[in-house]
Specification:
mainly alpha; 0% strand
Length: 73
């Protein structure tokens, strides 16, 4: 991911910025990319944790598993 982020940041820096001294658009892109990666990581951690809990509860009772899946989703 970092290779693509750096590549596109350079493309934005050279094409989208009005002058070479300003880096507002590039900085916004980098902040957005990092925020997106962190959000995806947190979301996947929560999804895996919820799936494990749901599987455990479904082994005991399907209605308990449904409640856990619904609340975790």
């Amino acid at each position: 991911m970092s290779v693509f982020i750096i590549f596109f940041a350079l493309v934005i820096l050279l094409i989208a910025e009005p002058t070479l001294g300003y880096v507002y658009t590039t900085f916004a892109f980098l902040i957005g990319a990092v925020t997106s990666i962190v959000s995806g990581y947190i979301g996947m951690r929560i999804a895996v944790y919820t799936n494990v809990r749901c599987t455990k509860e479904c082994a005991e009772d399907i209605s308990k598993g449904f409640v856990v899946a619904y609340r975790g989703g």
